[in-house]
Amino acid sequence: MQKYKVAIVGATGFTGSELVRILVNHPRIEITAITSESRVGECFSDVHPQFAGICDTVLIKAAEVSDQNTDLAFLALPHGVSMDYVETYKNQNFKIVDLSGDFRLSTPEVYSAWYPKAHTFPEGFETAVYGLPELNKKRIASARLTANPGCYPTSAILGLAPLLSAKMIDPDRIIIDSKSGVTGAGVKPGAVNHFSNVNDNFKAYGISTHRHTIEIKENAETLSGSAASIQFTPHLLPVDRGILSTIYARPAEEVSAEKIKRAFSDFYESEPFVRLRDTPPSIKQVRGTNYCDIFATFDETTGNIIVVSVIDNLVKGAAGQAVQNMNLMLGLDETLGLNQVPLQP
Amino acid sequence: MQKYKVAIVGATGFTGSELVRILVNHPRIEITAITSESRVGECFSDVHPQFAGICDTVLIKAAEVSDQNTDLAFLALPHGVSMDYVETYKNQNFKIVDLSGDFRLSTPEVYSAWYPKAHTFPEGFETAVYGLPELNKKRIASARLTANPGCYPTSAILGLAPLLSAKMIDPDRIIIDSKSGVTGAGVKPGAVNHFSNVNDNFKAYGISTHRHTIEIKENAETLSGSAASIQFTPHLLPVDRGILSTIYARPAEEVSAEKIKRAFSDFYESEPFVRLRDTPPSIKQVRGTNYCDIFATFDETTGNIIVVSVIDNLVKGAAGQAVQNMNLMLGLDETLGLNQVPLQP
Amino acid sequence: MQKYKVAIVGATGFTGSELVRILVNHPRIEITAITSESRVGECFSDVHPQFAGICDTVLIKAAEVSDQNTDLAFLALPHGVSMDYVETYKNQNFKIVDLSGDFRLSTPEVYSAWYPKAHTFPEGFETAVYGLPELNKKRIASARLTANPGCYPTSAILGLAPLLSAKMIDPDRIIIDSKSGVTGAGVKPGAVNHFSNVNDNFKAYGISTHRHTIEIKENAETLSGSAASIQFTPHLLPVDRGILSTIYARPAEEVSAEKIKRAFSDFYESEPFVRLRDTPPSIKQVRGTNYCDIFATFDETTGNIIVVSVIDNLVKGAAGQAVQNMNLMLGLDETLGLNQVPLQP
Amino acid sequence: MQKYKVAIVGATGFTGSELVRILVNHPRIEITAITSESRVGECFSDVHPQFAGICDTVLIKAAEVSDQNTDLAFLALPHGVSMDYVETYKNQNFKIVDLSGDFRLSTPEVYSAWYPKAHTFPEGFETAVYGLPELNKKRIASARLTANPGCYPTSAILGLAPLLSAKMIDPDRIIIDSKSGVTGAGVKPGAVNHFSNVNDNFKAYGISTHRHTIEIKENAETLSGSAASIQFTPHLLPVDRGILSTIYARPAEEVSAEKIKRAFSDFYESEPFVRLRDTPPSIKQVRGTNYCDIFATFDETTGNIIVVSVIDNLVKGAAGQAVQNMNLMLGLDETLGLNQVPLQP
Fold first, then answer.
1. Do D108 and D15 have their domain in common?
2. Is the Cβ of D284 closer than 8 Å to some Cβ of chain C?
3. Neighbours of B (≥3 Cβ pairs closer than 8 A)?
4. Together in a domain, A22 and A113
5. Which residues of B form the catalytic set?
6. Does the beta carbon of A50 lie under 8 angstroms from any beta carbon of chain C?
7. How close A10 comes to chain B (CA, Å)?
8. Do the domain assignments include residue A324?
9. Is C198 in Cβ contact with B193 (below 8 Å)?
C-alpha cells in the first residue's frame, strides 16, 4: 500500500527520537527527512545510538524540507522557534503537527502573556487546531496545522473533560497536583536534570506560574462554557517518563462515585487510548504507549471528586499524540502504528 | 557526664536501625538493650550489616528489658503489637516512646474504627501524649508515654499548624496531597516494595481511606478548635526516604503571601528543626536529618493558600522525632544528638 | 495469512508477561492459552494491569493445554518445575520452548551438580537443543524442545563466541564480570528485590558459585573444542532490565584491536540481532528489544582483550530469544514480531 | 579546647559541600573561610540549600585566604587549577590537603602524559605526600602538602595493598573492574550526568585510558617493588555515591581463601576505617561514611584471587579521606569527626 511521506523537523530532542521510535514501525508511513541545524550531515543514529541499524538517516537542514516529498511535517522544536518554521513552510502544501507550545493558546496576546517572547506569526492562530483527539477529532481531521497539546494539559484535561462538559463540577475550584518525569525538562543538560539533583529526590516547582496553567484553563473554559480557576502545581519525579495528575474538584450537583464513573465511561466510550481503571493507575502501566489511564471517584466524607490520570509524557503527552493527530489528518485509522505495549517492568 | 540508658524494642525494621544510627553518637545516651523476638542471640550488625564495628550488640528478648538498666525504651514495633508491650512494661519505671500508631489517636474507639483490631490496652490513652514537639513540648517533657506521630501527619500538621491555630484558614476545606518514599511501607518484602514495582514508577494509593487521615484530622481540630475536613491522598515515590506534602487551603480571612509567611515565621520562631524556605524545598535537602523544611505562599489568582513541607520520613517522621521526644522527656537539650547534616547528593 | 497457535505456560512472572508483550503484536501468532495454577480463572490483565484492553485472556490450568489448539508452547516456569511439564507434554504434538534452566546443560548429572535437585526427566536431554540462534540456528529449526539460554550466558557467550571459535583466546583464562538488573531475580518479593536494598545500591553476589557459570563453561568448551576455565562474577544493578558483561581474555595468538573487531564482524555478519559498536554500549540502548550490542577491543599495554556486551535480560536474555527460537522452529523469518525499538530514555 | 582553623578553597562542587558536611560537626575544627570565585559574596547555603541554618558562611575569594586565620586549607578544585593555588599559597604557613589530581603522581612528566596540560608547579612534587593513610600514615603526619588520592585508586589500592606488599600476587596480571556513582563526574551539568542518560542505565567508559590507571599502577609498583600491569575498567552506576571495585589477581605462591583473608586482617589490623567482611559488601553499607569494606577470597577452581572493595567516593574517596589526612597532619586522632553512620536505607 502507498506510504505517506513525513518529515521530522528537529532531531536532537526527546520528542524527535520518540517520533522516530513510533514511525519506523508505522505501516503507512515513510520517514523521508529528519532535520537538525546543529548536527546536519550526521546520522540520526549518531545522535541517538539506540537507533543503530534501525534508523541511520542522514540529517538535513530544515530549509530542505519541501512538499515534493512530504505529506506531513512534525515540528519537534523549542517554543519560540517553531513559529518561525510554520511561517517558513506556509506556502508548502504539506500539513504540520507542531509539538511546541507556539499555537496551543487562543490568541497571540495570551501567548505573549505566558511565554517569554512576542509571537512572530500571529496568522498561524487562524487555522491552528488544538490537537487533543478526544475533544477535537473532526477539526483535527481537516486541519492543516495542528498544535499538539502540552504534556501536563493532556493529563489534566483528559481527567477533567467528562466532568466539565457535563457541568458536574464547579470550574472555579479545580486543583491539579501533577507529577512529571524528567524528560519533560528536555534533553539539554542543566542543574534541573543533573542526576544528583533528581535521583532519590522530589520537589514542586513553578507554583502558580507554570505556563501549562493557561493551556489547561483555556480548555477547561471551552469545555464548561464558563470561567475557570485552575490551581496547577507541577512536581519533578525521579523517573524518566510519566505524568500522574491528581485532580480535586467540587461537585456542582449531587453526585456519587457511581455517577462519576459513568460520566467517564460515557464520555470515553469509543476512545481507543483512554482506559478507565477501578484502582488508581501507576505511570509504568502506560510507559512507552499512547494510553491515558484514568481513575475517578467521589469521597463522601469530604465531598470532593478525585481523579487520577496517568500518561507517558513523551507519548500521549507528545510524540504519540502527534502520530495520533497525523493519522487523523491523513485519513488513517487513529490507532495505526500506536500498538506499543507498556514496558513494565 | 552520666549517660542515660535506653532500650530499643524491635530491631529489625527501618525505625529500629535509624534509632541506632542516631543514638550511637548521642553524647548523653548509652544503648543498653536492643531486642528482637525473631533474631534473638544474633548481633544487631548481623541484621543490619552497615553497623559492623559500630553497633554489634547482641539482641535480647523484649521481656528481658527492665528498669534496672533502662531510663527510657523506644518501641519500634508494628501497630497492634506495640500496645502489648506498653501493657507489659506498665509497672516498670522507665519512660516509653512508642513509634507505632497505637496511642496516637484520641480514644480506643477512634483507634478501632481506623485500625484493623480492637485496642487491648485502653488505659494507655489516659497518659499518652502526642509527641509532636512543635505543638506539645511541655506535655512531652513530663510524659511517661509518648506516642510518636505518624510520618505523613508530621509533614501535614507542621505545614498547617500556624494557619489553623491562627484561624487563618477554613478547616473544612483542606487538601493534602502527599508523596512518600518506600521505607514508609516497612522492611518486610512484598509487592508494594518490589524494586520493579517502584523503580521508575509512581502511583496514588489509599485514597480517602489511609489511616493517617484521622490522625491529621484530630490534630487539625485540636489546633483550630472546630471540625475539620481533610482530603488526604498519599502517593508512593521511587525513593528510599522523604515525604513531601503539598497542602491546599482556603483563607478564612483576607491574606497575602507576606502575611502567610509571617504566620509561619512567628509560629516556628524558636523551633530548631523547622526551616522556612523562600522556594519550594526538595526532600533531599533534609535527607537523614530531623529537619522539616516548609514553603508557604498565597496564589492571588485562585485564592488558594499553598504550603509545601518536606521531611525525612524515617527521621523527623519517626526515629529522629522519637529522639527529640526522648531529649525532652529526659530533660536534655531538644537538639542533642540530632546534628546530622543532610546527605545531598 | 494463517496464524500459529501458541500457549504460554506460566503467566505470573516477568518472562510470561514479556512473552505476551511481544506476541500480541506478532503478525503470525495467536495466543490461544495462558496458564497459571495459582490464578486460574482470573484475567491475564488482572495479574498484569498494564495489559488491560490489550490481553484480557482468562488464565487456565497448564493441564488444559493440548495439541488441538497449540502449535508451540512456551514454558515460563521456575527451574525444577519446567521439567515436569516437558514430561507431561511428551506425547503432545506441539513444540516447546523451555525458558527455565532445566534442559540447558549437557547431562542430567551436570544439572544435578549445579541445581538444587535431581532431574526427573532425563530423557529430555536427548532431544533438547540449546536455543542460542547465533550458534545453533539449524538445529533449533528442527528441534521439538528448545532450551532457551540463561540471561547471563547469552550476554557472555555472544561476547566470546567469535574469539573462541577462531581460537584467538586462551579458553583457560576467561573472566566475565557481569552486572544485571533486578528482574533477573524474579517477580517473587524478597529481601533481594526490596526497593530499599537495591535502590542507590550495588553489590556482587554468587561469586564462583552462580549456576550460570557451568552454562557458560559448557558452551565455551563446545566453541573452543578444549577445556575452559570461567571466572564469572554477577552483580546486582539498581535497574529493572539489562545485563552488561565486561569480559577479559588473553590472546592465544598475535592480535590487534583491528583483528579482534574483524573476528566479530565476520562472525555476526548475517545476524540481525547483534550490533557491533565502536564505543562501549549502554544497557538502555537495547532496552525492550532483542538486540545484543557488543564492543570489543585489545589493550596493547596490558595484552588483554576486552569485550563489553549488553542485552535486555528479559528480551534477548529470555522472552525475545524465545520468540526468535519459536520463529525458527515454525519456519518463520527469525525477526518476525521482534521489531521493537529501544525505549530510551 | 582550642579549635584549628581551616579554609575550604572551592565551594561549589560536591567535594566542597562534603567537606563542610563533615567539618561542621568536627569537635576540633572551625571553618574560617570558604571560597568561590564565581559566587563570591553569596552564602554557602545559597549554593547548597541543604545547609540553611547549618552553614551560612559568606563566600570569599581564594586570594583572601591567609595564614593569619588558617592552619590548614583544603583545595577542592578541578585538576589543573589546584596547582596554581598550591603555588599561590607557597609562602603561607598553613598546610594543604589538595583533593585534585595535580600532585598524586610521581613526577610532572608522568602527570603531563596522563593529564591534559603541562604541570605549572613542578616544585610541588618535591614535598607532596600521597594521602592514603593506610599506607603512608607517618609521612602524612609530617607533610605540608598532601595529595588526596583519587576515588577509584582508593578503592583499588586498599583492595590490593595486603596482597602486593606480601608479594602474594603477580603484579603483572591485575584486573580492576570498577563501578562508580555519578557524583564522580562532578557537579557541572553535561550529557554524562543528565538524569535520562544515567537512570536505569549502565555503561563502561574510559577503557584502558582513564587517568586513574596510572595512579593505581604507580602505587601498585611501590607496594610490590616491581613493575605492574593494571587493567582498569570504570563503569557508571545509576546511583549518586559509591564505588565498588571487583579485583581479579593471580597468586604468586600457593594460597587459600583462609590465607588471603589472614593477609587482609593482618595488614588492616589497626586501621579504623577498613572493615573486612565475610560476604561481598554493598555500596550502601558505607554510604556517607569514611569506611572501606573489603571482601577477599580465592577460587580454587579457576585459581583466581577475587577482592571486592566498596567506598563512598565522596567520603573515603574524597572529603572524608581529606579530613582523615587533616587529622593526621594536625596531630589529632585520625578518626575525629569521622563517626558518621552509614545511611541505609
1. yes
2. yes
3. A, C, D
4. yes
5. 151
6. yes
7. 27
8. no
9. no
Count of structural domains within chain C: 2
Considering only the beta carbons, identify the residue of C24, C281, C288 that sits closest to A343. C288
Q: Which residue out of C39, C183, C194 would a mutagenesis test of the B interface target, given it has the greatest number of B Cβ atoms within 10 Å?
A: C194
Confidence of residue B67 (pLDDT cuts 50, 70, 90): confident
Could you report the per-residue pLDDT of D104-148, keeping only the tens digit for each? 999 999 999 999 999 999 999 999 999 999 999 999 999 999 999
Structural domain that includes position C276: 152-313
Residues in chain B closer than 8 A to C191 (CB atoms): 189
Q: What is the mean pLDDT of residues D204-219?
A: 96
- Rounded to the nearest 5°, which phi and psi values hold at A308? -120, 125
Q: Which residues of C touch B183 (CB under 8 A)?
A: 196
Residue D157 sits in the same domain as residue D306:
yes
Q: Residue type at D4?
A: Y
- Write a three-state SS string for chain A: CCCEEEEEECCCCHHHHHHHHHHCCCCCEEEEEEECCCCCCCEHHHHCHHHCCCCCCECECHHHCCCCCCCEEEECCCCCCHHHHHHHCCCCCCEEEECCCCCCCCCHHHHHHHCCCCCCCCCHHHHCEECCHHHHHHHHHCCCEEECCCHHHHHHHHHHHHHHHCCCECCCCEEEEEEECHHHHCCCCCHHHEHHHHCCCCEECCCCCCCHHHHHHHHHHHHHCCCCCEEEEEEECCCCCCEEEEEEECECCCCCHHHHHHHHHHHCCCCCCEEECCCCCEHHHHCCCCCEEEEEEEECCCCEEEEEEEECCCHHHHHHHHHHHHHHHCCCCCCCCCCCCCCCC
Does a structural domain hold residue D22?
yes
A201 and A89 in a common domain? no
pLDDT in tens, D174-196: 999 999 999 999 999 999 999 99
D14: chain A residues, CB-CB within 8 Å: 196
Cβ of D204 within 8 Å of Cβ of C240? The answer is no
Q: Does D250 touch chain C (CB under 8 A)?
A: no
Provide DSSP, D234-277: EEE-SSSS-EEEEEEE-BSS---HHHHHHHHHHHTTT-TTEEE-
- The answer to whether residue D1 scores a pLDDT higher than 90 is no
Q: Are residues D306 and D163 in the same domain?
A: yes
Q: Is C111 inside a domain boundary?
A: yes
CATH of the domain at B111: 3.40.50.720
For residue C292, what are the β-bridge partners?
C274, C311
Facing A175 at nearest CB: one of B175, B230, B240:
B175
C-beta atoms of C193 and B190 within 8 A: no
* Closest approach of D238 to chain A, Cα-based (Å): 8
Residue that is last in its domain, among B77, B112, B127: B127
Average pLDDT value for chain A: 97
Residue numbers of C between 317 and 336 with CB closer than 8 Å to B: none
- Domain membership flag for residue D123: yes
Q: Is the dihedral of CA B59, B65, B71, B74 positive or negative?
A: positive
Report pTM.
0.98
Q: Are residues C122 and C158 in the same domain?
A: no
Distance from CA of A74 to the nearest CA of B (A): 28
Do residues B118 and B160 both lie within one domain?
A: no
The domain that holds B232 is classified in CATH as 3.30.360.10
Per CB-CB distance under 8 Å, the chain C contacts of D184 are: none
Report the share of chain D in percent with pLDDT over 90.
99
Put simply, the answer to whether A182 touches D199 (Cβ < 8 Å) is: yes
Q: How do residues A96-145 score in pLDDT, each as one tens digit?
A: 999 999 999 999 999 999 999 999 999 999 999 999 999 999 999 999 99
- Is residue D35 within a helix (H) or strand (E), and if so which, with residue range? strand D29-35
| Nearest residue, CB atoms, D240 vs list A189, A190, A196 | A196
| Predicted-complex ipTM score | 0.97
Same domain, B110 and B246: no
